[in-house]
Write a structure and sequence with these properties.
about 260 residues, alpha+beta, Trna Endonuclease, Chain: A, domain 1, 8 helices, 10 strands
Length: about 260
């Protein structure tokens, strides 16, 4: 009998007693899952840019019909026009009248799923680490929703990816993240805010109140850690570089001696 191998992350989760009910869902991405490999490569590189992610948030907000001025709240006119031309070329958007456009993906309602997809792709492409995103696990306490779980050198790493700004993140959400991490028991966990804003202003104080008695220290810039096990970071500088920094510190945690 031929045995079809499972995804490495799926195997690790099974050994922990979890059953995957949903993985890698594509219905809420801002681009159709049927895009070519070449188009996916182009979108990945564009999504690595914070300016493009901010731009896409406005595209999703106005998905039924938008014009260039609708997309310039945080993006300059020239750059917004460049992004529109790129999305037209990739067939992600289509013309909807003179100077008007619409997003072809009808189901998308937020940037959240696309951000989870991006984080998983960063693990795969930049860190050569297999990853699954948008997971729903049966048997997990504190809710079974996990944004991204990766296998880094055979060690499980869990990432909670927030697309909302820090002002919209409440203590209950951080507490739920910590409970999910406790249930999963990964090698390390990362709380990622897709923002250029400071983590020290609101997010870090929330963690300090919830992990009382444990040291929350600055690793570098706006990346912090709780005993080099739980990391808090943003997208400042570069989202992939910040994820890589957290992973590197995790791997450095257990020295030779």
């Amino acid at each position: 009998m031929t045995v079809i191998p499972c995804h490495p992350v799926e195997e690790m989760l099974k050994r922990r007693g979890f059953e995957i009910q949903i993985k890698n869902p594509t219905q809420y991405l801002f681009f159709p899952p049927s895009v070519s490999g070449e188009a996916e490569d182009a979108l990945y590189l564009m999504l690595r840019r914070y300016s493009f992610r901010i731009f896409i948030r406005d595209v999703i907000k106005n998905k039924e019909s938008f014009s260039l001025p609708d997309l310039t709240r945080y993006t300059g006119m020239a750059l917004a026009n460049e992004y529109i031309e790129s999305l037209l070329g990739l067939k992600i958007i289509e013309e909807n009248g003179p100077g008007l456009y619409r997003l072809k993906a009808k189901e998308v309602f937020s940037f959240g799923d696309t951000l989870e997809w991006l984080v998983a792709k960063i693990f795969e492409r930049e860190l050569s680490s297999p990853a699954l995103w948008g997971l729903c696990l049966k048997g997990a306490e504190a809710g079974g929703d996990y944004d991204c779980v990766a296998s880094v050198e055979g060690r499980l790493v869990y990432v909670e990816a927030k697309s909302s700004p820090p002002k919209n993140v409440e203590e209950a959400e951080v507490a739920a993240f910590l409970k999910r991490a406790e249930a999963l028991k990964p090698y390390g966990a990362i709380f990622l805010e897709d923002t250029m804003l400071r983590m020290k202003d609101k997010i870090v104080p929330i963690f300090e109140s919830l992990v009382e008695g444990r040291d929350v220290k600055r690793v570098e810039s706006e990346t912090f850690s709780v005993e080099d096990k739980v990391f808090i970071t943003n997208s400042g500088r570069d989202i992939a570089a910040n994820i890589a920094l957290c992973v590197r510190r995790l791997l450095e945690r257990d020295g030779f001696w």
